[in-house]
């Protein structure tokens, strides 16, 4: 590959390390402090149109789909527009009802994923408005969409996506803030989110400094045959993405579940050989999440928590800096990218090119 490795052994490590800089780039020049909003030049959506949107449907594959799930939550929270994300590959095969009041958002790092492109083309044929949240400038999905925003993560070479995931979620936070300020988000909440966004690059660097500790933990858990990842509401898509990351690079089986659903099945799997990674933000669900940790501990499960404070019931906690509740998911997945990386390294995997996977799936 033609990109400079900058002293890193793998592109995955390099790309994880570049995240503060990348987030800085997606924010640059877009914040409007006077109106507590952000400007997204290429959106191509007038305020009047934005006010008439009644639903948002986000379509993507793999990691981009997970970024879209967090994006849907951000849009619901900040703009109060009912939103959800669906794998583009599923959407295009179920003859979906295409509704004129729904705004469709296609999300893709490469901008070339065939299932996403085909979904966009089908939507456009039916007269829908489609925006793109895309990393590669001038890519097929970016060209096909009616407008949208670039993610500005820079080139991503490793097959598994890290910095682009983070930047995509930040791009969704910008879109949510923009839509929110056209609709019902107050000036003070707009300012609160902007301040939170500005804190992200520094907080990402703080997280990256804990790498030696995460490396130790990864070695400790690398003998697991299978791992459970749990989170609730904001933490759930973070758990899903972390579980995908681990299985992609380390080939350890991993499954993500909402912490609230533990008692409806996964508790049966808990035993010392089946560790759980739990996303435990300091938000209004903290006590609920703690109760889930207790349930797991009572069944002798090993627990690694990612939290804003040390969790007593966990065997280990990776403590991450707190941001605004809505923006916490952007930070909480980052230590688990390093966890997946160091697990794969300990197991001697081909980190940048995991078996059977491709960076961009441009065929059906
Ligand atoms: C492939 C890659 C994933 C990626 C997905 C979607 O499966 O291995 O890392 O998340 O495609 O790619 P896109 O370029 O559309 O984000």
Summarize the structure in short:
Helices cover 44% and strands 16% of the residues.
Could you walk me through the main structural features you see in this protein, from its secondary elements to its overall organization?
The chain has 364 residues and is α/β, with parallel strands linked by helices. Helix content is 44%, strand content 16%. The protein has 14 helices and twelve strands. The strands form three sheets. The chain has a five-stranded parallel β-sheet with strand order 4-3-5-6-7, with helices on both faces. A five-stranded parallel β-sheet has the order 9-8-10-11-12, sandwiched between helices. A two-stranded antiparallel ribbon has the order 1-2. Helix 8 packs antiparallel against helix 9 (187-208) and helix 11 (235-250) packs parallel to helix 14. The longest helix is centred in the middle third of the chain and has 22 residues, at 187-208. The radius of gyration is 20 Å and the shape is globular. The mean pLDDT is 96. This is Glutamine--fructose-6-phosphate aminotransferase [isomerizing]. Its EC number is 2.6.1.16. Its main location: cytoplasm. It is an enzyme of class 2 (transferase).
């Amino acid at each position: 590959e033609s990109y400079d490795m900058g002293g890193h052994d793998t592109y995955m490590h390099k790309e994880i390390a570049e995240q503060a800089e990348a987030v800085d780039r997606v924010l640059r020049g877009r914040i409007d402090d006077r109106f507590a909003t952000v400007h997204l030049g290429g959106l191509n959506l007038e305020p009047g149109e934005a006010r008439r949107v009644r639903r948002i449907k986000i379509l993507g594959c793999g990691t981009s789909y997970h970024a879209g799930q967090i994006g849907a939550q951000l849009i619901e929270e900040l703009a109060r527009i009912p939103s959800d994300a669906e794998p583009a590959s599923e959407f295009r095969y179920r003859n979906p009802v295409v509704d004129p009041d729904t705004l469709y958002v296609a999300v893709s790092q490469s901008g070339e994923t065939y299932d996403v492109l085909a979904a966009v083309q089908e939507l456009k044929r039916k007269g829908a408005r489609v925006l793109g949240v895309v990393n590669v400038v001038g890519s097929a999905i970016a060209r096909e969409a009616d407008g949208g925003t670039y993610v500005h993560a820079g080139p991503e070479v490793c097959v598994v996506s890290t910095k682009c995931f983070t930047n995509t979620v930040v791009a969704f936070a910008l879109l949510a803030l923009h839509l929110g300020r056209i609709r019902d988000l107050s000036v003070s909440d707009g300012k609160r989110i902007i301040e939170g966004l500005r804190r992200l690059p520094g907080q990402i660097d703080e997280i990256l400094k804990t790498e030696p500790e995460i490396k130790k933990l990864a070695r400790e858990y690398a003998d697991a045959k299978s791992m459970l990842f749990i989170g609730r509401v904001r933490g759930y898509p973070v758990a899903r993405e972390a579980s995908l990351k681990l299985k992609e690079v380390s080939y350890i089986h991993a499954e993500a579940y909402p912490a609230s659903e533990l008692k409806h099945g996964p508790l049966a799997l808990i035993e010392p050989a089946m560790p759980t990674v739990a996303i435990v933000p300091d938000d209004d669900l903290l006590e609920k999440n703690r109760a889930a940790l207790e349930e797991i501990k009572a069944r002798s499960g090993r627990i690694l928590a990612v939290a804003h404070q040390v969790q007593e019931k966990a065997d280990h906690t990776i403590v991450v800096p707190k941001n605004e509740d809505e923006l916490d998911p952007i930070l909480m997945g980052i230590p688990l990218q390093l966890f997946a990386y160091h697990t794969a390294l300990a197991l001697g995997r081909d980190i940048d090119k995991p078996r059977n996977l491709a960076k961009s799936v441009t065929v059906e």
